[in-house]
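Replying to the earlier thread about multi-chain prediction with a worked example.

Input:
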Amino acid sequence: MNSDNNLPTITRESFAFKPGTSLPHSLGRTGVISTPHGEIATPAFIPVGTKATVKGVLPESIGQLGGQAVLANAYHLYLQPGPDIVDEAGGLGAFMNWPGPTFTDSGGFQVLSLGVGFKKVIAMDTETFRSDEVMAKNKERLAHVDDDGATFKSHLDGRIHRFTPEISMQVQHKLGADMIFAFDECTTLHNTRSYQERSLERTRLWAERCLVEHGRLTRERTHRPYQALLGVLQGAQYEDLRRKAARDLGSMEVDGESFDGFGLGGALDKENLGTIVNWMCEELPYDKPRHLLGIGEPDDLFTGVENGADTFDCVAPSRQARTSAVFTPDGRVNLSNSKYQRQFAPIDENCDCYTCTHYTAAYVAHLFRAKEMMAGTLATIHNERFIVRLVDQMRAVIENGDFLEFKREFLGRFYAGNPKRQAT
Ligand SMILES: [Zn+2]
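Result:
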């Protein structure tokens, strides 16, 4: 058993980030994040295992397809099976038999999004009128935020729960991931400017409380490996707020505790993704890692890498795979299309994943039509490999190649029918 109980106490020196090669004329860079459970070469795409499983895929397969870490969700694991059970199991990695590095996100986004029913943000129309009540319309309001925390109804059984910064830290310490996130209020692009200002201040005060509680728990739980705490930056589409958030959290120190890295979070509209990431990364300390939360479309990944983000996570590759939508160099295609019934060749000839090296597109298409469980498994392995490999290739060309040429070539082909999303 690889139980953490047998490991010697690991100090906070066991977490580090070492920046590597910089991309000329931009904030893009390579680097290595060291954690008590291994290293992550960045930039890197981190597969999401929301409930301590990448749906339908063995952790061994995630390792084989090049996944360097897994990100699970504190909100879901808090509700089920509960943080005590994960703690008793030896932490998230031991519980799910994943030996590598792990992340949990704080639950802030899920508490509010599953409560009030707004979607992640990237496709949001910024031109619509802004109102702080928009998100509550037509929906029972399942979450309520106040200055101390958030009260929400479980989406599983309707029971009432409460998260505060302290509770989020306690939950995430019990879950035991190598990298955890501060509890933040995730606003939408629909909130008014004055609400964004108030919310940003609330998130700043919550960040201080997270540092205090994180420090206390770290000192108390010396039998566990050190967990790195990442502060989460909000500020929606406003340059002054985004820069302020980065400066505030970047320099924050409470009781000798400061953040080990940063999560770039919240409302990010696609058109301005690069600009907003750039504002934050210009202000953040250079020697700490930056995780861009919830981003996984190929064009957005290039934009994120170019503007200084080091790691990424997104449920899209696996979620889309389960609906038979798979990536190819010529764009995303759907295996339900009748032309794949007789494609006795891999989904992608150039893909080195387990699915493409062992099965034909015709077979996977058949599994989807027959509603066989293995359909989702094989498609997920392919999609996760495609995105993990794409970001690995970005790292390789930053180190030793022509990033802009690779970007132009990849996006030109991937979005051939959609010139707006090709590289400029
Ligand atoms: Zn493949």
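Residues 25 and 240 are 23 Å apart (CA to CA).

Feel free to reuse this layout for your own posts.
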